[in-house]
């Protein structure tokens, strides 16, 4: 039975684990991006998503293609989360960047 397990048959589990890691990595990226740059950085997330989506379509390896697809839609979802993060900061749930230090 163990001889029958190949990388192809494990690809779903591998993509699942990598999806978990990719999504987990994007959470602090959104927080830091909104803190340092605000929501005006959203076009970079759009560009990143488009690039990952294109590479996902042309990737020959199923695991690479799947992970690039997950990364693409994590970039796209991060655009929404940037604006939600702005609201969370306004509510006081996250710290707001103090721009007074930069003016002095």
What does this 3D model show about the protein?
This protein is mostly helical and 104 residues long. The protein has a domain of 64 residues. The mean pLDDT is 89.
Task: Give the helices and strands, then pairings.
Layout: H1 11-37, H2 42-58, H3 62-90, H4 100-103
Helix pairs in contact: 1-3, 2-3
In short:
This protein has 104 residues and is an all-alpha fold. It has helices spanning 11-37, 42-58, 62-90, 100-103.
Query: Helical stretch count?
Result: 4
Number of strands: 0
Task: Please trace the helix and strand order, writing H or E for each element.
Answer: HHHH
**Strand percent estimate:** under 5%
Structural class: mainly alpha
Quaternary organisation of the protein chains? single chain
Show unreliable segments: none
Tell me the overall shape. Answer: elongated
* Mean of pLDDT: 89
Give the distance, in angstroms, between the N- and C-terminal Cα atoms: 69 Å
- Helix content percent band: over 70%
Keywords:
mainly alpha, 104 residues, 4 helices
């Amino acid at each position: 039975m163990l001889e029958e397990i190949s990388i192809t048959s494990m690809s779903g589990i591998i993509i699942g684990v990598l999806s978990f890691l990719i999504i987990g990595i994007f959470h602090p990226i959104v927080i830091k991006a909104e803190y340092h740059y605000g929501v005006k950085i959203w076009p970079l997330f759009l560009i990143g998503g488009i690039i990952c989506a294109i590479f996902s379509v042309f990737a020959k390896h199923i695991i690479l293609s799947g992970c690039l697809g997950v990364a693409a839609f994590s970039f796209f979802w991060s655009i929404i989360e940037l604006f939600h993060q702005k609201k969370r900061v306004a509510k006081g749930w996250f710290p707001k960047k103090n721009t007074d230090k930069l003016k002095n």
